[in-house]
Amino acid sequence: NEAKDELQEVVAFLKQPDRFTSIGARIPRGVLLVGPPGTGKTLLARAVAGEAGVEFFSISASEFVELFVGVGASRVRDLFRQAKQQAPCIVFIDEIDAVGRQRGAGIGGGNDEREQTLNQLLTEMDGFEDNSGVILLAATNRPDVLDTALLRPGRFDRRVLVDLPDRRGREAILNVHARTRPISSEVDLAAWARRTPGFSGADLANLLNEAAIVTARAQKQCIEDNHIMDALERVTMGLPAAPLQDSAKKRLIAYHEVGHALVATLLDQASDLDKVTVLPRSGGVGGFASLTPDEEVVDSGLVTRARLQARMAVSMGGRAAELVVFGKQEITVGASSDIETVTATAREMVTRYGFSSLGPVAWEGNQAEVFIGRDWLQQRPTYSKDTAKALDEEVQKLAKQALATACTLLSGHRPLLDELTDALIEQETIGGDQFRAVVDRYQGATAPVRDSVRGLPNKAG
């Protein structure tokens, strides 16, 4: 909604320029749309042009850059010449980071053409006459790598965040895509919106399209909940594989997945269990326990220390189950990806969030996406070897504490662990509500009785 409101003003600039120029306001020359892939940046740009009733010129920045020197700059000149002839209009450049990256950042000699193209783009933006009626919209999901000259006032005056939709936004998007498909009256799209936090508009469109394909494959006339669930698992976990026939392997995987699910159910800071299954998926996934992320946490981005500790304990639940049931010598490599996840989380807690005995110091920046060139060449530790050793020790301590928490929970609920594993082997899939009902019955309570991660042996320094 914020992005929509901001762009409504751009429409007003184009439809009623006198309203602004009469009091001396200068119409912005450029608006940068920033957001993750699939959030509708291109769609918004088209909607602005359609609402304003002006010409719309669209091009991907990658089309500017060619092998031959000078081609990109020439295409930029041609584009803006056409735009000025058709003013008022909107020029939209998608993925502008393809040509707008920081100059001098490359590690090879093949960047001259891109930099010439960027220089020409800057020249054209400076060549706009005030209130010329040409507004440049550009989209990127990497604003951090853009050249600072692009972002100064007089070029891209405004930055509009087009973020992932919240629950209401997801429900509205699902309703739009459901209009053209036969959806069963029993399907609650609001419930599916709650189950898909972190999905972009493109993800949701793909989800319903996959559900329609599943429905057609099943030779049904309308999309049911089970078709959407099948589509969701296809999108997130991969295609179904042949069921396991080896009873020993099936039991091992069942214990592993129930370990994740049970730790998640017993910890009050963990996300709710959606389902646990031993049905394998493509890509080597022998089974999985899926959780429903807390929507407020996803939307706000604010994660507490206790919740991070709970996430790590849940990730260690599979390894802990193998230790508790089969012993130290019989643990498998099946927890490798879980351990990688725990290690990455623990390192961020220590080096970025200050959740350790080393104090509130940011030892490392965000390493999620390194800009090859400028960033890669500058990857040098800014701390001593002694500090590096201390950081590693803190990371190890957090990982070990997560495993200890999971082992303590599962050891203390061993009969429940065995009962749930037997049920999973028999049924192959257990829904979250059914799983919690078994836990509640075991606990002898009418409401879930859950342990606090803060009361278990995984307190960080």
Structural notes for this entry:
With 461 residues, the chain is of the alpha/beta class. It folds into three domains: 1-161, P-loop containing nucleotide triphosphate hydrolases (Rossmann fold), CATH 3.40.50.300; 167-237, Orthogonal Bundle (Helicase, Ruva Protein, domain 3), CATH 1.10.8.60; 248-446, Peptidase M41 (Methane Monooxygenase Hydroxylase, Chain G, domain 1, Up-down Bundle), CATH 1.20.58. It has 20 helices and eight strands. The chain has helices at 2-15, 17-21, 41-52, 71-85, 97-100, 112-126, 148-151, 167-178, 189-194, 201-217, 225-237, 247-266, 295-300, 305-315, 317-326, 336-351, 374-377, 385-412, 414-427, 432-443; strands at residues 30-34, 55-60, 89-94, 134-140, 156-161, 272-277, 288-292, 429-431. The chain has a five-stranded parallel beta sheet with strand order 2-3-4-1-5, sandwiched between helices. α1 packs parallel to α3 (41-52), α8 packs across α10 and α15 crosses α18 (385-412). The longest helix has 28 residues, at 385-412. The model is unreliable at 368-374 and 445-461 (pLDDT under 50). It is found in: Cellular thylakoid membrane. Its main location: membrane. Belongs to the AAA ATPase family. Its cofactor is Zn(2+). Pfam families: AAA, AAA_lid_3, Peptidase_M41.
